[in-house]
Amino acid sequence: MAKSLAEWLQHLETLHPVGIDMGLERVSEVAERMGLLESPIAKRVVVVAGTNGKGSTVAMAEAVALAHGLRVGAYSSPHLLRYNERVRIAGQEIDDQPLVDGFERVEQARLQAPEVSLTYFEAGTLCALWCLAQTELDLAVLEIGLGGRLDAVNIIDADVAVVTTIAQDHASFLGTDISQIGFEKAGIFRPLKPAILGSQTLPGSVAETAIGMAAPVYRLGLAFSHSAGLAAGRPWCWHGLTAEGDTISLDALPDPGLPIDNAATALQALAMSGLVLKSSVTQNALAQVKLPGRMQWQGQWCLDVGHNPHAAAYLAHRLPAPPEGGRQWALIGMLDDKDADGVIAALAPLITDWVCVTLEGERGREASELAERIKAQGGHVYGCADSPQGGADILASQLTPQDRVLALGSFLTVAALLARPLPQAE
Question: Which residues form the Mur ligase central domain (predicted)?
């Protein structure tokens, strides 16, 4: 009897002894058996790596390309509520049946002698690539899951490769040496193919890696730039280069509610892919782009999946102050391998009261540990709960109309909160 999508996902969790196992040998072998490497999955492929900003860069590149009439496929991870969120074709989340068909193809190839063990992410990536390859795509935009050089997505050769930002995260897998992390992220570059550097503070190893393999480098602040200042909500201008090397400018672009550095980077990546960007079409696309879990407002609540100091600093910069007399609450739940102290420090000046929640699982972290870290930095912990939902219940009886809540720290935290109506003050 054929498995449902839910049954396939449950099965994938049993395939490999560890959840994360860096390397391309196993996933490349199965991809070869599936025929995934015989021809490109789309006419043009853009791959996006980085510590923060990958998801927003993918979402904006996808939205702008769709608005220009391209048939676009996108792959990103993780998801918030439905696994189907990870694969989008022509702007729509993929249905269950193509994913089921894809997992069946992955399993058939995996079980050929000699049998190959795959992680959940590796099997999901192969399935996503197979699904994208079944459609006639003008452009595929792929998000690297972890690292770059050894990430499963990197079996695909990019026509344009992007590195957004570099910061410490996933230290147990990528280490704490920023230069080495930059080298790993830059592993997605390919000889003679454009390398887009989406931050002005990247370690030198990123450009050095690109130059070492003869990939032409396009840096934010040099080859392309934007006029956006510190104030949110204002129109901005983009200046970049076409694939032929000509200068191009787009004026009066709307604030998409996502980092402008990432928006500018997405536009440069599209220009390098050969897309002729039109001002009015780009304006409309950026005005309508949405990315769940990134400064997503639901009434008094702002939900963000940010889980490292770099992301927290961006939130601190962009988060509006609550109305006069209101408190700025924070509901925080983080995994054990994240830099909680750095996140707390970045947000501490803004937060009047903290609610800490436990996240379950092998990488979970107890609310009580977060609370101690907040208290050590002088913060006020109002309460702790054994789940994000429990934290929301604490706030249900405390919120006034002037209060605001920032919920952050993990995809798991935000996903749990999005799965239920959030309490609002009467």
Answer: 48-194
List, in order, residues 6 or more apart from 253 with CB less than 8 Å away.
Answer: 235, 236, 237, 238, 263, 282, 283, 286
Domain boundary among the residues 233, 265, 288 is at 288
**Domain stop point among 239, 263, 288:** 288
Question: pLDDT by residue (tens digit) across 286-298?
Answer: 999 999 999 999 9
Q: Is residue 128 in some structural domain?
A: yes
> Are 326 and 320 contacting, i.e. CB atoms less than 8 angstroms apart?
no
List the end-to-end C-alpha distance of the chain, in Å, as a whole number. Answer: 51
Q: Is 170 left (phi over 0), alpha (psi -120 to 50) or beta?
A: left
Tally of domains in the chain: 2
Question: Which residues have a Cβ under 8 Å from the Cβ of 114 and sit 6 or more positions away?
Answer: none
Residues 308 and 186 in one domain: no
Could you report the per-residue pLDDT of 354-365, keeping only the tens digit for each?
A: 999 999 987 899
In a domain, 228, yes or no: yes
- Residue 426 vs residue 287, higher pLDDT: 287
- Residues 279, 386 share a domain: no
* CA-closest candidate to residue 223, choices 241, 238, 205: 241
pLDDT of residue 234: 87
Q: Which domain holds residue 254?
A: 5-288
Parallel, antiparallel or unpaired: strands 195-197 and 160-163: parallel
**pLDDT score, position 147:** 83
Do 174 and 257 share a domain, yes or no? yes
What's the average model confidence in pLDDT over 414-424? 95
Q: Are residues 58 and 89 in the same domain?
A: yes
Which residue from 318, 331, 393 is spatially nearest to 367, judged by alpha carbons? Answer: 331
